[in-house]
């Protein structure tokens, strides 16, 4: 099921006297009965309910089978309930947030039993005993402009397999019906920040191109010697219906070992996106691309110094890959500002304002013997 939160402004109070408990109880009973009649007519194509009404704002929750029917169901529901509702905003949400809306609706007597609704749509096992032993997170990615997503590609990524996968995503046409999870990835990288951003980038591209019809995805962490058999995986599959499941291995260098222990998972994965650490040349390219976006240029000597620093820093365990290039650029800009502030402002040219020199590139805390042998020739 695809799940949504619907918010809007109500033109007039739904209760004749909000200070009268009996009047409030009668109002809730009336709308609960109307809602039940409407949902019976939907015949399991979906379920929609009032979750809360407060200070002129009404909040609804909805489960639907077909994403193309969301707006139609919402409009029909509002008319059936005879609610004057304006400035309507429909947002996709996670299952956990849906549970929150159902609980709120049950406490406020707009529905009778939240568990029965979950059971009716086959979602009760996701919140049952088994789910308590499988910790996973849920997120929702937003759609973006396809041209904007593609033009940002070169700013951050230099992985050949990543480029090929983006070409595949943007070459195909979108899907018109719910097809579950059309693609599974192995994302191989030692840098957590890179993995997280690349994961979001891939899913957002898929969602923008309608290769998946939901922006919702589940993320589960597993140990290299752990197993992810069909039972928990199918539960995650259902939790992210129409979207994606992300399996994050705690130790990336033991991916092969993990897949050997989970042959069922291997058979589902069609694409392997490898993201090895950048070499010093590619890191320099990334810094140049980021600098170009800010109108910044580097002198020949600055580029030589950056290459030397990158060559050294790549050997460190906490090396941040592309993230380190961004940090180096930001630090260089601060160093440049400090350097120029020591001069007579009237003597500073426009070119100097937008040029990073070797003096601005910060040298990391290298061991003395290594540092003594460093040269910054091109």
How would you explain this protein's 3D organization?
By secondary structure, this protein is of the alpha/beta class. It contains 16 helices and 11 strands. The protein has helices spanning 21-42, 70-81, 95-107, 114-120, 146-151, 153-156, 160-171, 192-208, 230-239, 255-261, 263-268, 280-293, 300-313, 322-341, 350-353, 368-372, and strands at 2-10, 46-54, 57-64, 85-92, 136-140, 185-188, 216-222, 244-249, 271-274, 297-298, 355-356. The strands form 4 sheets. A 4-stranded antiparallel β-sheet has the order 2-3-1-4, sandwiched between helices. Strands 5-7-8 form a 3-stranded mixed β-sheet, covered by helices on one side. A hairpin with a 2-residue loop joins strand 2 and strand 3. The termini are far apart. The model is unreliable at 178-182 and 367-378 (pLDDT under 50).
For the termini, the CA-CA separation is 58 Å
Number of helical stretches of at least 4 residues: 16
| Radius of gyration from CA coordinates | 27 Å
Catalogue the unreliable spans: 178-182, 367-378
How is the biggest beta sheet arranged? 4 strands, antiparallel
Mean pLDDT: 76
Fraction of residues in β-strands? 15-25%
Q: Give the overall silhouette.
A: extended
Oligomer: single chain
Helix content: 40-55%
* Helix and strand run: EHEEHEHHEHHHEHEHEHHEHEHHHEH
Strand count:
11
Q: Which structural category do the helix and sheet elements fall into? A: alpha/beta
Biggest sheet, spatial arrangement of strands: 2-3-1-4
Provide the descriptors you would attach to this structure in a database record.
three-stranded mixed sheet, extended, 378 residues, 17% strand, four-stranded antiparallel sheet, 46% helix, alpha/beta
């Amino acid at each position: 099921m695809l799940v949504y939160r619907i918010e809007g402004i109500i033109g007039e109070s739904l209760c004749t006297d909000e200070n009268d408990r009996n009047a409030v109880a009668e109002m809730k009973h009336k709308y609960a009965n109307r809602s039940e009649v409407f949902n019976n007519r939907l015949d399991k194509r979906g379920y929609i309910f009032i979750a809360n009404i407060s200070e002129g704002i009404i909040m609804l929750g909805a489960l639907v089978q077909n994403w193309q029917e969301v707006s139609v169901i919402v409009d029909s529901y509002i008319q059936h309930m005879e609610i004057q509702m304006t400035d309507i905003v429909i947002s996709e949400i996670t299952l956990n947030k849906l549970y929150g809306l159902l609980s709120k609706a049950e406490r406020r007597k707009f529905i009778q039993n939240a568990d029965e609704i979950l059971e009716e749509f086959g979602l009760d096992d996701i919140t049952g005993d088994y789910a308590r032993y499988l910790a996973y997170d849920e997120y929702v990615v937003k759609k973006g402009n396809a041209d904007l997503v593609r033009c940002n590609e070169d700013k951050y990524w230099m992985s050949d397999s990543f480029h090929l996968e983006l070409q595949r995503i943007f070459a195909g046409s979108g899907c018109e019906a719910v097809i579950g999870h059309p693609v599974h990835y192995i994302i191989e990288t030692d840098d957590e920040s890179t993995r997280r951003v690349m994961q979001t980038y891939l899913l957002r591209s898929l969602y923008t191109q309608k290769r998946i019809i939901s922006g919702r995805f589940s993320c589960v962490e597993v140990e290299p010697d752990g197993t992810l058999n069909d039972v928990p995986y199918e539960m995650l599959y259902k939790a992210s219906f129409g979207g994606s499941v992300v399996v994050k291995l705690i130790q990336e260098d033991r991916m092969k070992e993990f897949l050997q222990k989970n042959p069922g998972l291997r058979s589902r994965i069609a694409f392997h996106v490898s993201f090895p650490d950048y070499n010093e040349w590619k890191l320099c390219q990334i810094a140049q691309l980021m600098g170009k976006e800010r109108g910044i240029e580097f002198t020949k000597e600055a580029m030589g110094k950056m290459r030397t620093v990158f060559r050294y820093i790549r050997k460190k365990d906490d090396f941040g890959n592309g993230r380190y290039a961004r940090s180096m650029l930001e630090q260089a800009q601060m160093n440049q500002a400090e350097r120029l502030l020591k001069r007579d402002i009237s003597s500073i040219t426009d070119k100097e304002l937008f040029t990073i020199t070797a003096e601005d590139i910060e040298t990391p805390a290298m061991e003395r013997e290594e540092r003594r042998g460093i040269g910054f020739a091109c």
